[in-house]
Specification:
35% helix; five-stranded parallel sheet; Oxidoreductase domain protein (chains A, B, C, D); homotetramer
């Protein structure tokens, strides 16, 4: 008989943001039990965080090493771990988990450097375990509909892609106020790596564009800025794009677009029409052409199967960010369960970002940052 | 130490719709464990449904009576039951659960008749247990913001309320096709009671209007129709309203508004301004006045505490229907837990619909249906 | 060779609002020359107003009688007059103009009473001249598209109509401040007649609903209010409607919907789908059904001819209220010109409201006001 | 006493598009009389076009030279000419008109080359006559409100500007079909100059950005494309921008964005907030910041005078493209009239684009086209 996937979490203790999102996403579909964790940098805080979550105190560990070692020996041991720490703390727990037989689902960007990402890929391949990366925006049903429509030729050959992720939350020097942990690590090269906005949200934009279009960026021309005085990493970037089919594009990401929230937005223009999607009203996918405008919504009319299986409720009842995020966890859980049972996951089960998306993301970061410093117009996307 | 609330479910087996919604709503915040259920009308189907949910087969019961009796004797017995059956099956399990010491959370409308609702109120009061009714739309953060703004006088004395719930899913005789269980029971007087659209969604509109404004409807003038030929219950109603402060209003509910999904919409006009909210884009609350239009959103600017505590994620990441529904479950769980621990629930914990809302709803149904048949202009709201 | 229609204006002097709108509407298409006027209640003010408009001082008359008498004797005399005075001043100049051989275009509501309207119809018929009524909202291209779609069966048999015209400009007792002429006459029974909001904007809603659907209202049940203390005429009404094909509906009009501007909005639900149009973004017509939502816009895709001929510029360049108003003037001018030349106007030339629309409007006013005072539920629409 | 400005038109005959727009724009406010023209390239077509417009046949001239020479000798001669020919035909009539004492209002881009534009500036300065350029989008009231807000510091120091003008009408090779005159000359280097989309609509985007922000672009990095096979001029461009205050930006213009109409859109991000405006719903100006979102509309709340004087009708009745265009004509007419009368035009009268805007536009065209061909990252804006 089927059973829920048992999961442990690394990071996500008191005061963290993204850990709570992962927990809800894992809980929504009732396919995963969060049973243990190493939630914080100190054993005490980790225990207290686990207590908040009403977990068994014996399974609230001091750190990920203890968690992996002790869980490994339990009869009811976990199947998978979820990594929700800052970027510089992804690689070590991911590596150890995989090498000890645990499947891994990890926040993005996948690692601190491109070189770490490549090493991780070797480990994933060697162990044969499942590795999922939470580029959560690809979990939205209408994103999947867009992708399926493009694949089916609904807008013809793609000519132009405009993707942007404006935020405004770092319009002021939040990281210098001493009260915003999130702002502190996001702007700290030691924890975030070489990029700020480009790494945190530029990668989401890049991933979304490549997921929806099926194209790959081949070269970029980037104008990368640190707008807020004293900030150590970029907080705004405007990037011209060239794609492998000859299409052109623009990618913008910003943390200083005051008044914007999470305005991830994509427009794909093909020969025959265009598709428009905005993360803040994710239930609508606009299809425009010379013949007019049609709006696609979950549950309405004929949708492609990949979109259909990503909704939980009938039309007109909006699902949101957490449900999109949950689609990554649901597909991860189903893939892990089937693989543990010797079954073959379906194409829908496998519809989640992998280590390859992680490597693309790190390549994007390194290429854009390099272009930002270059006086050459175009910089090739690193292979 | 705190522990999760253990819950059993009545109804919601294979092929049902609302049961799945309740399960997700209960799971989201990690405060409730669904541990058992009597999911269907036959023991076999009930077991199979429990298996789908990966529950302990020993706790997948043949019917609610067996569930209540057997759970009562377990050491790890449930604390509460969730009732998600059609309307005519609410009263019996609710009564038995309460009388056996279990808290109850129940789908709406609360019972089959007003008289049942009143009996249930007596039982709730006698047992002193917690009873929640899932008028889920009041769980949206911006609904709570609207309510708090009105209470604080932001739009002054209320003059007019326009509330509507148009759906289009019964534009055709779905119930006569033999393939739509939902359509069948919703249009069947034996399972739904005296009202169709009025009972199913008119009550949501009524509850929302009274929740947001703090007013009570005192009399109605209703035009109630059965539009689709052969249908046994109303599928459209237009209702003029009078409120206890002298305000006027209009309530519309419809299942034959072809092209509409779940267009629950409310506009409240006060002396000083107005508030506008639409369920399909629930993250926006518009405040309009002679000075212009301002849009309130979760996490942006200064919101009232009741709105703040109802969001889980920062601005710009939309939460939806399931999270609003989960707010009812979360508050129910917290109230139950505190009461079990001898603590006093906060005003925020207690922010969920109760048996009194259930009685208002049944009064609304009976009054509107009576008005629809009456040639008198105004019919008093039944006390 | 064709020449422009020469027109005189009655009313619309300094401080008036709607006169200026008529002048722009008449000017836009270059088919009408405004050459004279009797703009105000005093000769001096009338002259001064004409001077503001850079008209020949010799043709700025003291009152409409002088204008009609003197123009009649000129070689280059006017062809038509435009009446833009308050309601109680429509009948006399219209009668005199027609009886002296001038075509008439008149602001709505057509007259002060239903009985006047019927007399005017007799005069129009007797003289055989052209009479147009400026129910300007039917001039919008997408309104015409909606009408044509319904006529062609795009949404099947009509089941429900929701039409509303909320305004907020009389939320406070503007008419008691002594500074708002518009508010004064609109709320003065001596100048506006028996109705306030119902007459001023309720008639627009009624006209729009009947124009788009091709149906006629047969009976109403109205809740008519005077919300602002001391006001002499209604400022809010909610009305249940029955139509001649059995369809039901709701009509709302309000001047105390604080925060609303000119929110004229109509939704028509048919068996097969629905149409949605909002005056404040008039370039969009939404067609919704079970298959999804399509948005019609001027110039995009295949539109019906009546919509096509009502736009002046290519898609994506919004036309607005003045252009819709101008469509009434343009069609009036073309009809007048063709009739003067002995030609037959086309169906598109004749697409403007006539004295019959005026009579329907006055019937609507009298019926709704009567229903508001009645304790009977339904009041038949007066014949 | 004041009189209307008498105007002649060059271009805009049968089959042309923009001429009709200019005529409506000139007519709307009743301040200008179109009395003559040289509408087409052949005398016959010019006459016929004038007849369509119901003008005096004696004043329908064979070409602009005849018009200027003959009008000059009339007692009731024109005051000004309007030039609405393709780009390569702007300079000659503008020069001759100015040198013969006529004021000029001219479609954009001002001339065929930057060098012509500079010569024209000399002539304007030498003659002391009024020259207006119809960058019509700056005529929208909410554009003027945005400009005034920025000037007053409402969003603080500007950090980022995103301006775009996507169209889709040239998604297919329209110019090769032999039926689309507009497409033919717009894509013909002999009539449009060195740029296609960049000249036609890129200049609108540039002008709008500089008008609203008060900043100047200092250098660009452009990716300029010819997407449709066989096309002779660019039909898409993505441009990175640097402004004189250090702000960064992106400008996109496109004629192959299939499904787009005239999606001119600007977002200006300042330290304290941002402003968002979209040409297709021009009545809304969104002001967003950390405190929330407010929507400005004509006639609502407190607006800056420049916005107030640009609306003709009360709030909620949308004005559109033609009224914005008319604001240019109205201000031009008032300036001309005052100057003819020896009066001083007000700052509002003078609020129209001039020869200086024309020169900026030609500089923009030359710089962007040069950058598109350059392998250097940044190209300085030509002085």
């Amino acid at each position: 008989m089927a059973r829920k996937i048992r999961m442990g979490m690394v990071g996500g203790g008191r005061g963290a943001f993204i850990g709570g999102v992962h927990r809800i996403a894992a809980a929504i579909d009732g396919e995963i039990d969060l049973v243990c964790g190493a939630f914080s940098s100190t054993p005490e805080k980790s225990k207290a965080s686990g207590e908040d979550l009403m977990l068994d105190p014996a399974r609230c560990y001091a750190d990920f090493k203890e968690m992996i070692q002790k869980e490994k020996r339990r009869k009811d041991k976990i199947d998978a771990i979820s990594i929700v720490t800052p970027n510089h703390m992804h690689f070590a727990p991911a590596k150890m988990a995989l090498e000890n037989g645990f499947h891994v689902i990890c926040d993005k960007p996948v690692t601190f450097t491109l070189s770490e990402a490549k090493k991780l890929k070797d480990i994933v391949e060697k162990t044969g375990l499942t590795f999922a990366l939470t580029h959560n925006y690809t979990g939205y049903p209408m994103v999947k509909q867009a992708r399926a429509m493009i694949k089916a030729g609904a807008i013809g050959n793609i000519r132009k892609v405009v993707v942007e992720y404006p935020q405004g939350w770092l319009s002021f020097p939040e990281e210098q106020k001493g009260t915003n942990k999130q702002a502190e690590w996001r702007t700290d090269p030691k924890r975030s790596g070489i990029a700020g906005a480009v790494g945190d949200i530029g990668t989401h934009a890049e991933n979304l564009a490549e997921y929806i279009t099926g194209l790959q960026i081949t070269e970029v021309c980037a104008d990368v800025s640190r707008v807020v005085e004293g900030r150590l990493l970029d907080d705004d970037a405007n990037v011209l794009l060239h794609f492998d089919n000859g299409a052109r594009g623009v990618l913008m990401c910003s943390q200083i677009s005051n008044g914007e929230q999470n305005g991830l937005n994509i427009r794909v223009f093909g020969e025959l029409g265009s598709l428009h999607w905005h993360q803040e009203t994710p239930q609508y996918l606009k299809h425009k052409s010379i013949d007019g405008q049609r709006i696609f919504e979950p549950g309405v009319g004929e949708l492609y199967p990949a979109a259909q299986v990503s909704s939980r409720i009938p039309f007109g009842h909006p699902e949101g960010y957490l449900e999109a995020f949950a689609n990554i966890y649901k597909n991860f859980a189903r893939t892990v369960r089937k693989r543990m049972n010797g079954e073959t996951p379906s194409e829908f089960d496998l519809d989640f970002p992998t280590i390859d998306d992680g490597i693309r993301g790190m390549q994007f970061v390194e290429t854009v940052i390099a272009s930002g410093k270059s006086s050459s117009k175009w910089v090739k996307f690193k292979g």
